[in-house]
Amino acid sequence: MSGKGIKKKSATAKRLLDASRTHGRRVRNPALLRLARRSGVKRVKRGKLSPVPLPRATQPTHTPASALLTYCKSDVYDEIRSEIERFVDEIVRNAVTWAEHREAIGGPRKTVMIGDMLQALRVVGRKVWGWE
């Protein structure tokens, strides 16, 4: 098989991912369960939350009985996932802002460094141990 050399890759342009195409980067349920266990939760209910009947005073008289139950449409894992996304978005937004408006040598940067992340965490009120 000698003489073939290294094959050249095609010269196609690399595309950036849309923010809306994040279906491959979701936090999976086992990872959420590990986080919950680490924080002290003993059990996480799977599936939809049970129906909650409306109070008697607010029940309309002309509505069928099947419509008197309000369902909580979100799963527990979906709620945890949305809170993690909100937290990460806030930290990354602060870190990018800190990097763009830096008055250090060379002016603003487009690369987020560890110092920017630490400052973003300080702004939110989180302490990080082991970093100066």
UniProtKB/TrEMBL annotation:
InterPro entries found in the cross-reference section? Histone-fold
Query: In what ranges is there compositional bias, type Basic residues?
Result: 1-12
Q: What are the GO MF terms of this UniProt record?
A: protein heterodimerization activity
Region: Disordered; residue ranges are 1-22, 42-63
Q: What name does UniProt use for this protein?
A: Histone H4
* Source organism of the structure: Sphaerosporella brunnea
